[in-house]
Design a protein that fits this description.
This protein has 203 residues and is an alpha/beta fold. It has a single domain, classed as 3-Layer(aba) Sandwich (Rossmann fold), CATH 3.40.50.150. The protein is built from 7 helices and 8 strands; from the N terminus they run ααβαβαββαβααβββ.
Length: 203
């Protein structure tokens, strides 16, 4: 796991990583600004907490090694925990977001159930998931030993359908073109690296 942390740090601190994080953070801010209590499920090394200092975010990750690095980058609260068994009371978060996390979980459905449980009625869910139709995905998943090879789920329609059991889908988006060292705006399915889903918790 220490090796994974080192890889994430190198990527996030690279020129490309910084460009990607700025774009993702701006998207998250635009969607979640005004939310009083926000949970980041799968926060990793705390990059979004670092980039979004004005939002009241609690970061959660299963890896203590990741959280150790996160605490160096931000003074926000970080908690070790499992996305499929959250240790929070019901309906306490105004918003929850998760970036390239659900597709790596064995039981993403249980994670969505838990996320819905801790979201307030009319609260917001923002999911950013790797777009398996993109050039960026296809290039990375072919690389031996790449983190993309750990992905368990690539069916965005299946994910959408399950989220819709708990949330009214308010937005779907294709976002963030990545080609080589270039980051650009696009909603082209073949170029956008992320599939984005926004939902409002059902009453």
């Amino acid at each position: 796991m220490k090796a994974d942390v080192a890889k994430f740090v190198r990527f996030c601190d690279s020129l490309l990583g910084k460009q990607i994080l700025r774009k993702e953070a701006a998207y998250i801010y635009n969607e979640l600004q005004g939310s009083e209590a926000i949970l980041d499920v799968g926060c990793g090394i705390g990059s979004f907490e670092q980039h979004l200092p004005t939002l009241n975010i609690i970061g959660l990750d299963v890896s203590e090694d990741m959280l150790e690095e996160a605490r160096k980058r931000s003074d926000k609260t970080f908690i070790q925990g499992d996305a499929t068994d959250l240790t929070f009371h019901d309906a306490i978060f105004d918003a929850v977001f998760t970036v390239t996390t659900l597709e790596f979980l064995e039981d993403y459905q249980k994670a969505i159930q838990e996320i819905a449980r801790v979201t307030k009625p009319r609260g917001k869910l923002l999911v950013m998931m790797l777009n398996p139709s993109s050039e960026y995905f296809r290039e990375n998943v072919r690389r031996p030993g790449d983190y993309f090879q750990r992905i368990k789920h690539t069916d965005t329609e299946e994910l959408r359908e399950y989220v819709s059991r708990f949330y009214v889908i308010s937005k779907e988006d294709l976002f963030l073109g990545i080609h080589g060292e270039q980051v650009f705006e696009t909603d082209d399915e073949n170029l956008a690296s992320l599939y984005v889903l926004v939902g409002i918790k059902k009453q």
